Amino acid sequence: MKIIPGMSAHTLAVRIAAELDCKVSSCEFKRFPDGELYTRVLDDIKDEDVTIVQSIRTDSDLICLLQLIDAVEEASETKVFVPYLGYVRQDKRFEPGEAISARAIARSICAAGVIDTIYVINVHNRAVLKYFNVDTKELNAAPLIGNYIAKREIPHPVIIGPDEGAAELTKTVAAPRGFDYDVLEKRRISGEEVEIKLPKKLSLSVEGKNVVIVDDIISTGRTISEVASMLRAQGANDIHVACVHGVFVQNAVPRMLRAGVKEIIATDTIEVELSKISVAEMVAGELKRSSK
Ligand code: R5P
To answer: Considering only CA atoms, which residue is closest to atom 9 of ligand 1?
Structure first.
């Protein structure tokens, strides 16, 4: 098997290849003078099994993925690993005339070439997987976050999810380790504004406790900042934050630190400085199982 690293996931691709003891193909990416992206796979992939690894955080990331799928058309088997599948928060038409971005992205990926299997990690809304017309699998990084928290030896951590959408993630991080957990209520006012409420019935008190807020995505950090401020007001002790996909835009990190967060960690589905948890072993394990 050859791993084809996309522009946005080079480090993760190298880590996955190391786990699998297989080759990372060399690729060339450059811009034409007008800004268009040029992509070339420099290895001979004819009749090879290839796995493309490319997250979609930006428009260019999507173009790069589409180009890579096209470039490997002579491979005998093509798997596409999209560790962070962006655009899926626009998963339905909220207002007339809006694009269902998740569907548009899924359609464009599937139409880019012959794909055997697509893999994603903690997709924001699993329902969008129906938009892919090839075999699609979702991997769950929540246990890795649970392991990381356990290793950090934070005394009696309470795991908090900001909203119902994070309920399953929160439970999967907390329950296997026997951590207490609860989920708050969030109302999104706009892309920039969120309102956090305590659930009608708070199942536990955070006073004097160390808290880990978990979420699938942190973008502007406003959700986490609101939650952190509320938990501080409730007397929480240290506040840690863990997410699967660290998008971190618009000064997200300083915003969360200002709200009283002590530590922020993410996985490497998006390569950032705070990617302290690698999904490489989990991905490699899945690729090994599927090649048997
Ligand atoms: C939305 O429901 C997601 O799970 C995250 O809570 C959201 O994307 C976080 O966005 P931000 O960091 O901008 O508040």
So the answer is: 218
Q: 219 CA distance to ligand 1 centroid (A)?
A: 6
CA-closest residue to ligand 1 atom 2: 165
Output the CA 19–ligand 1 centroid distance in Å: 31
| Active-site residue list | 186
Helix (H, G, I), strand (E, B) or coil at 198: coil
Quick: pLDDT tens for 244-276: 999 999 999 999 999 999 999 999 999 999 999
216 C-beta closer than 6 A to ligand 1: yes
Query: Burial of 177 by CB count in 10 Å (0-12 exposed, 13-18 middle, 19+ buried)?
Result: middle
Do 147 and 154 contact (CB within 8 A), yes or no?
A: no
Q: What is the pLDDT of residue 186?
A: 78
Instruction: Say what the pTM is.
Output: 0.95
148 and 276 in contact (C-beta within 8 Å)?
yes
Residue 1 confidence (pLDDT): 93
Q: Is the CB of 226 under 6 A from ligand 1?
A: no
pLDDT digits (tens, 9 = 90+) for 109-133: 999 999 999 999 999 999 999 999 9
Residue nearest to atom 3 of ligand 1 (CA): 217
Domain annotation for the chain: domains and CATH numbers:
2-140+279-291 (3.40.50.2020), 142-268 (3.40.50.2020)
